[in-house]
């Protein structure tokens, strides 16, 4: 199968109108103010830039994503690992790479009270590799397949879909160098998006081994050398320090030059080519469509061979961050960290971006199931019984809402109405003395008086007959 390479389309020249420039300048000034401690003088505390609260009303979408990730991880036999948020900073310098944007510009590094340089993890693959070595996982049956979810930190310029604290769910498979591992990881990722109903495309490339990359980089550097004066300062620096990174430059002039630049696929050695072809063949076998992107190199140094990204298929003109996840093979990583040579491959998903894509599609599941029963009380004696009754309902698996803080019946019934419950239980002083309770059907308004000792069973029966799916089968 020939490797079809897609030439990236150069962006249209954009001339910024004056108004836009002024807005941009104002935004930058505001940003600077905030970075320099804006909000210091105000009485309330502001969130740090690039950090956000995930509010209760967003948790339904988050739960959906987390539950989907977990169930797919389990069905592909990945074991969960939780890794620390703080690590020695040299772990990332060594693996992600000193000359990468992540380490050079974006890492939260500081000296801890023991005078050690530590970093808030910008990613978790390096930590997973460290854990693999330090827990002797090489002696376990290979591959060792682990998944994680948690916050990462990068001090990048915040924008839609890009935060300074963001959540990733990641999958790492250590110990097997077969191309089928790469392919199955891509299938796994694609399944997560399929289950979530998100339309993505898989972009894929191979960056071969460090050896064949060396020869390619020399060629790439000499291609760009005569054009140096057309490059931005950032790209000039990239060219000098980490020429591969120039391939994902967003600068117009560089993008134009990249059209004719040498492509890494032409520099792969036979083994790397064969590995890559097999990955593509496996993907075709399982009908996962992919796009070959010869400029995809990813922003971390530890990759070898296959690299890939899950890109959201979105409207033209939507400029927000569309890479919902990315990964690749990292056959040299374990050795780099002092372990025995061990291949590996993995990827991570950006959960904020996935949640955002679900939001854009109008997906908004409730955070928890809506309770069908409201408990209304009148007076302290009723509250005391109510407290116990609430526990009985909870143990029976029937969610009940209450408003113990409210005293007037009217207000409580209004609350019950607002919540749209099916039944309201009413307990006044008389009922407490009689050992009874009133059950009110909220739709018909009909009320019945019951023995309080039987109320849990009766409510369960009522809910079950009217809405069989409302009550969990807990006895
Ligand atoms: P990454 O491409 O740097 O790879 O990050 C993976 C995903 O995390 C991105 O595709 C994006 O969705 C999300 N992400 C990255 N930065 C931000 C940000 N500032 N705000 C919001 N979301 C963000 C890695 O981190 C590798 N460790 C992936 C990997 C695992 N490779 C092999 N195994």
TrEMBL record:
Subcellular location, record wording: Cytoplasm
Enzyme class: ligase
Binding site for L-histidine: 123-125, 154, 168, 172, 298, 302-303
Any single biological process term in GO: histidyl-tRNA aminoacylation
Chief place of localization: cytoplasm
Highest taxon in the source lineage: Bacteria
Pfam families given in the database record: HGTP_anticodon, tRNA-synt_His
This protein's GO CC annotations: cytoplasm
GO molecular function: ATP binding; histidine-tRNA ligase activity
Quaternary structure and interacting proteins, as annotated: Homodimer.
Name of this protein: Histidine--tRNA ligase
Organism: Candidatus Uhrbacteria bacterium GW2011_GWF2_39_13
């Amino acid at each position: 199968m020939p490797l079809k390479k897609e030439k990236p389309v150069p962006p249209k020249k954009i001339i910024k109108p004056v108004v836009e420039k002024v807005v941009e300048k104002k935004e930058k000034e505001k940003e600077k103010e905030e970075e320099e401690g804006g909000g210091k003088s105000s009485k309330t505390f502001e969130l740090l830039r690039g950090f956000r609260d995930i509010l209760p009303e967003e948790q339904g979408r988050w739960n959906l994503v987390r539950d989907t990730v977990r169930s797919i991880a389990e069905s592909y036999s990945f074991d969960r690992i939780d890794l620390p948020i703080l690590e020695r900073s040299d772990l990332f310098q060594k693996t992600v790479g000193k000359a990468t944007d992540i380490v050079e510009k974006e890492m939260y590094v500081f000296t801890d009270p023991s005078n050690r340089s530590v970093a808030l993890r910008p990613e978790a693959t390096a930590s997973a590799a460290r854990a693999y070595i330090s827990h002797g996982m090489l002696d376990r049956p290979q591959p060792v397949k682990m998944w994680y979810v948690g916050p990462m930190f990068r001090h990048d310029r915040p924008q839609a879909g890009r935060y300074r604290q963001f959540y990733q769910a990641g999958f790492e498979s250590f110990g097997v160098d077969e191309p089928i591992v790469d392919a199955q990881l891509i299938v796994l990722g694609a399944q997560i998006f399929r289950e979530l109903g998100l339309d993505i495309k898989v972009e894929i490339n191979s960056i071969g081994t460090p050896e064949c990359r060396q020869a390619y980089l020399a060629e790439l550097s000499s291609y760009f050398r005569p054009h140096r004066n057309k490059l931005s300062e950032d790209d000039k620096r990239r060219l000098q320090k980490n020429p591969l990174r120039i391939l994902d430059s967003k600068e117009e002039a560089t993008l134009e030059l990249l059209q004719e630049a040498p492509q890494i696929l032409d520099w792969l050695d036979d083994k790397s080519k064969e590995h890559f072809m097999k990955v593509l063949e496996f993907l075709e076998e399982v009908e996962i469509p992919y796009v070959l992107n010869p400029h995809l190199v990813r922003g971390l140094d530890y990759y070898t061979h296959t690299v890939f990204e899950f890109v959201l298929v979105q409207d033209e003109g939507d400029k927000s961050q569309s890479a919902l996840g990315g990964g690749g093979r990292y056959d040299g990583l374990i050795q780099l960290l002092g372990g025995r040579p061990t291949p590996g491959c993995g990827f991570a998903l950006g959960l904020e971006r996935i949640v955002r894509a679900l939001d854009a599609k109008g997906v908004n599941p409730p955070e928890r199931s809506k309770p069908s029963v409201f408990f209304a009380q009148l007076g302290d004696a009723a509250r005391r019984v109510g407290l116990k009754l609430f526990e009985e309902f909870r143990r029976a698996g029937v969610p009940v809402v209450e408003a113990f803080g409210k005293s007037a019946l009217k207000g409580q019934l209004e609350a019950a109405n607002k919540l749209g419950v099916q039944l309201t239980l009413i307990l006044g002083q008389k009922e407490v003395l009689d050992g009874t309770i009133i059950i009110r059907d909220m739709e018909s308004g009909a009320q019945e008086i019951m023995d309080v000792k039987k109320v849990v069973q009766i409510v369960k029966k009522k809910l079950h007959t009217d809405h069989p799916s409302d009550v969990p089968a807990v006895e």
